[in-house]
Amino acid sequence: YCSRIIKDLQGHFKLVGELSSKRKTASAEEEDDMEGYDFPPYVLPIYSETGWVDKRHLNSGPRARVLALTLEERGFLCQFTDAELVVTLPLRLRGETGGPLGDDGDGGDEDEGMEDDYEENGDEVEAKA
């Protein structure tokens, strides 16, 4: 069941991506305003007025949460509404993507080793010389 949902998600976002790349906007400013909306979410109905939509696979809240956690482990973002599971892609700014040298492109973590530079002394924290 999960693999079928993942294939549906991949198909949805692939189609949306293809349509988005073909879309032309009137101005660059309008394009910047719409950039976060290029990929509309995948909406999976889980509950309706008559009960659970998929009575075999998704017939309780815990099962819906397990599905959401499974999708999040694969990189999707999941949110619940009263009756739906809304799945989106994580948005990242161009500068936030990891370069070949690391997350910020400088080859190291800014905070790496910071705990070694400070020593606790009672209630105060003093920097080592």
Write the layout of secondary structure elements.
Layout: H1 2-22, H2 28-34, E1 42-45, E2 47-48, E3 51-52, H3 61-73, E4 77-80, E5 84-88, E6 118-121, E7 124-127
Antiparallel strand pairs: 1-5, 2-3, 4-5, 6-7
Strand line-up of the largest beta sheet: 1-5-4
The strand count comes to 7
Major β-sheet profile: 3 strands, antiparallel
**Proportion of strand residues:** 15-25%
Helices and strands, in order, run as: HHEEEHEEEE
User: Would you identify the regions where 5 or more consecutive residues have pLDDT less than 50?
Assistant: 101-129
Write down the oligomeric state: single chain
What structural class do the secondary elements suggest?
alpha+beta
- Note the total helix count: 3
Mean pLDDT across residues: 75
Global morphology: globular
Radius of gyration: 22 Å
Give a verbal description of the structure.
Strands 1-5-4 form a three-stranded antiparallel β-sheet. The radius of gyration is 22 Å and the shape is globular. It has 129 residues and is of the alpha+beta class. The protein has helices at 2-22, 28-34, 61-73, and strands spanning 42-45, 47-48, 51-52, 77-80, 84-88, 118-121, 124-127. Residues 101-129 have low confidence and may be disordered.
Give a brief description.
It is built from three helices and seven strands. The protein is an alpha+beta fold and 129 residues long. The strands form three sheets. Strands 1-5-4 form a three-stranded antiparallel β-sheet.
